[in-house]
Amino acid sequence: MKKIFFALLVALLAIGGVKILKKKKEEIESLPTPTPPLVVIKVVKPIQKEINQTKQLLGRYYSLTQAQTGTKIAGFIESVEVKEGEKVKKGEILLKIDSSEIKAQILAQQAKISSLKSQISAQKALLRSVKKDEENTLRSLERDKALYRAKALAREILENKVALYEMKVAKTKSTLATLRTKENELKSSIESLKAKKKLLEYTLLKAPFDGVVEKIFFKEGSFAPIGKPLILLLGNEWVVDLPFSSGIKEGMKALVEGKKCEVKKILPNSINSLKVARLNCPKLPLPNNSQPKVTVIQKSVRGLAYPLKAVYEERGKKYLFLYQNGKFKPVEVEILAQDEKFFIPNKKLLAPVAIGSNEKLAKLFVTQNVEVISE
């Protein structure tokens, strides 16, 4: 009896459940279909534009020719003839070292040379005299020899005459040796004078090339030691050296402080394992060894350009949503060139395109409930 009761109860519950489910289904089916939310999308037309794709790097601006000029002789600085920032020509006097001591030495050396020349002149006159005396003694000796052979002259007189001639010869040799010594001393003195005059040249510090006085290290009246730079001179050829890892080639244009420059060559040396490009630039309003920002134009492309916010990116691919016939159509593209705001794709697309965030553009894949606004 109990089993029958439970069976009837289960059957009644099942029938009731089916009726409830059927009623619930009818209620759900009677509800209105939900409308997807409206997506407001702006569209823009492409514009004809030239885009310079650039790369920004930090360079070093400096004078290619630099000279830290110093003195080869120590001394007190008599005068500084230039000022910092002043332009100078090659050979122009920059600074003078006191030359009074060297000038005194030159005067003394010139006096010595003059004295030696007088002594040499006198010695040459003496040499002529002793040579003449020697020649006369020789002629006399030859006569005495003839007389001796004729037995008209005593042997003792001949021997005395021979001894006298030998004395004359010795005197000639001695006088000639003294002359040669004086002549050698004169040559040495002349060389010494040249050296002192060269030292005098060293008291005038001159510009080795055209340029600008960058720094003066010693003031007038101070002592200038040998080997210390006195003035830093910069040449007129200025360059920008640009360390880079890749993407820079010879002939590329660049902008530095608003001035147009050009990559002249890639240097064989490196800086911290980076390649170095040398740029030819006009004179820039920057100090020597400054580090300006350099914008290198890697390539220039002209064509139909779109805003960067028109690009939808997914899994490494890029898309544009073309708006044609009231619908949006995704088209895969590649970027040929881009700047801060625009890009040029590899396809010539004339239709307007959607712009917006990546999240917003993604909705165009799944909805057509779109309100289009032209920008």
Describe the structure.
The chain is of the alpha+beta class. The chain has four domains: 39-51 and 301-374, Beta Barrel (conserved putative lor/sdh protein from methanococcus maripaludis s2 fold), CATH 2.40.420; 67-98 and 207-234, RNA polymerase II/Efflux pump adaptor protein, barrel-sandwich hybrid domain (OB fold (Dihydrolipoamide Acetyltransferase, E2P), Beta Barrel), CATH 2.40.50; 100-202; 237-291, no CATH class. 35% of the residues lie in helices and 37% in strands. Strands 2, 3, 12, 13, 14, 15, 16, 20 and 21 form a nine-stranded antiparallel β-sheet that branches. Strand 13 (253-256) and strand 14 form a beta hairpin. Helix 2 (100-149) runs antiparallel to helix 3. The protein is rod-shaped, with a radius of gyration of 53 Å. It starts with a helix and ends with a strand.
Largest sheet: 9 strands, antiparallel
SSE sequence, one letter per element: HEEEEEEEHHEEEEEEEEEEEEEEEHE
What is the average of the pLDDT values?
89
Question: What is the rounded distance between the termini?
Answer: 82 Å
Q: Unreliable segments (pLDDT under 50, ≥5 consecutive)?
A: none
Number of helices: 4
Query: Roughly what percent helix?
Result: 25-40%
Shape: rod-shaped
Calculate Rg over CA atoms.
53 Å
Structural class: alpha+beta
Taken together, the total number of domains comes to 4
Strand content: 35-45%
Question: How many beta-strand segments?
Answer: 23
Topology of this protein?
Blueprint: H1 2-30, E1 39-44, E2 47-58, E3 60-63, E4 66-70, E5 75-80, E6 87-88, E7 93-97, H2 100-149, H3 155-202, E8 204-206, E9 211-216, E10 223-224, E11 229-235, E12 238-244, E13 253-256, E14 259-271, E15 274-280, E16 293-307, E17 312-314, E18 317-324, E19 327-333, E20 335-338, E21 342-345, E22 353-355, H4 358-362, E23 370-374
Parallel strand pairs: 1-23
Antiparallel strand pairs: 1-22, 2-16, 3-12, 4-11, 5-7, 5-10, 6-9, 7-8, 9-11, 12-15, 13-14, 13-16, 14-15, 16-21, 17-18, 18-19, 20-21
Helix pairs in contact: 2-3
